[in-house]
Specification:
- The complex is a heterodimer.
- By secondary structure, chain A is mainly alpha-helical.
- Chain A contains five helices and no strands.
- The longest helix of chain A is centred in the middle third of the chain and has 19 residues, at 40-58.
- Chain A is elongated and about 65 Å long.
- By secondary structure, chain B is mainly alpha-helical.
- Chain B folds into two domains: 2-87, RNA polymerase sigma factor, region 2, helix turn helix motif (Rna Polymerase Sigma Factor, Chain: A, Orthogonal Bundle); 98-194, Orthogonal Bundle (Arc Repressor Mutant, subunit A).
- In chain B, helix 3 (30-40) crosses helix 4 (45-58), helix 8 packs across helix 11 (170-194) and helix 10 crosses helix 11.
- The longest helix of chain B is centred in the last third of the chain and has 25 residues, at 170-194.
- The chains are: A mainly alpha, B mainly alpha.
- Chain A binds chain B through residues 10, 13-14, 17-18, 21, 23, 41, 44-45, 47-48, 51-53, 55-57, 59-64, 68-69, 71-73, 75-77, 79, and chain B through 19, 22-23, 26-27, 30-32, 34-36, 39, 46, 49-50, 53-54, 57, 101-102, 104-107, 122-123, 126, 129, 131, 134-135, 149, 153-156, 159, 174, 177-178, 181, 185.
């Protein structure tokens, strides 16, 4: 039988990113979900964490400056 | 059936490991490699990419599938970066959590309310950061926190893979990710204030 003791906000927030990664045990996953079911503030933290992950994942698509690209292409050709 | 085998190999995306095949494969990956390098080092991203390309060319025969070239090249680049860090023999800059464990950017935004007329305070805050702002924030973090954060949340590496790449136990990587996230959030808040990303007082 799993231990579904309530956890405080500090503990829920500490585990949010790992919760989103499914990197915590099913038991801890359940505890976080239970906490989120009644805590509006932590639901806000959860949404914020999700948005943060999206901007991190999408922030790497950038154009390579033409002069850098040109030098790197020349380097590759010279290998 | 020799012909069948050849067709199968082609369908699996395996081409000759020639210099021309290497060039064709890596040219498409240059922007992604340069972008990753710029998130690992403040200066010298181009040198880091060149060294990675050199190592990749030497190891080209070990690439099993062309489709895996992007991840393969990134892994080589991270290895080169790790070796460069080791040569500099810098001491590991582990930070005690201290009051960092209590820091929440979400709550700080609620408390400080930098956009008093906004109904979407948190989204407005995040939208103020473009990719260069985020790069500046991440590059300010100590290497031991920055590298796992960049690999995990910008490039989708699994935590086990990161542990193997930086030669650290999985538990250490998880702890560094935890601290790194808090440091990153605190640095975002500091940077937003410095760079004028918050609404001006009326």
């Amino acid at each position: 039988m799993s231990d579904t003791t309530a956890i405080p906000c500090s503990e829920a927030v500490r585990q949010l990113w790992d919760y989103l990664d499914h990197a915590i045990s099913p038991n801890d996953q359940e505890k976080v979900e239970k906490h989120l079911s009644f805590c509006r503030s932590c639901c806000g933290e959860l949404e914020f964490a999700k948005e943060m992950r999206v901007i991190l994942a999408t922030s790497t698509a950038e154009e390579i400056p033409p002069h850098v690209r040109e030098r790197l292409e020349r380097f590759v050709e010279g290998l | 059936m020799h012909a069948g085998s050849l067709i199968d190999l082609t369908e699996a995306g395996v081409r000759d490991r020639t210099k021309e095949a290497f060039q064709e494969l890596v040219l498409a990956e240059l922007p992604a490699l340069y972008s990753l390098a710029r998130r690992l080092v403040r200066d010298g991203a181009e040198d880091l990419v060149q060294e990675a390309l050199l190592q990749a060319f030497k190891a080209f025969a070990t690439l099993k599938e062309d489709a895996a070239a992007g991840r393969w090249l990134k892994t080589i680049l991270v290895n080169v970066f790790r070796d460069q860090l080791r040569k500099r023999s810098r001491t590991v800059d582990e930070r005690p959590m201290g009051d960092l464990d209590d820091f929440s950017l979400y709550r700080t935004l609620v408390d400080e309310d930098p956009f008093p007329y906004s109904d979407t305070l948190h989204a407005d805050f995040l939208q103020g950061f473009d990719s260069e702002d985020l790069r500046e924030v991440i590059i300010r973090l100590p290497d031991i926190y920055r590298v796992p954060l960049v690999l995990r949340y910008m490039y989708g590496f699994a935590t086990k893979e990161i542990a193997r790449l930086v030669d650290a136990p999985l538990g250490t990587i998880l702890a560094r990710l935890h601290r790194g996230r808090r440091l990153f959030e605190r640095e975002m808040w500091t940077y937003a204030q410095e760079a004028g990303l918050l609404a001006k007082e009326s």
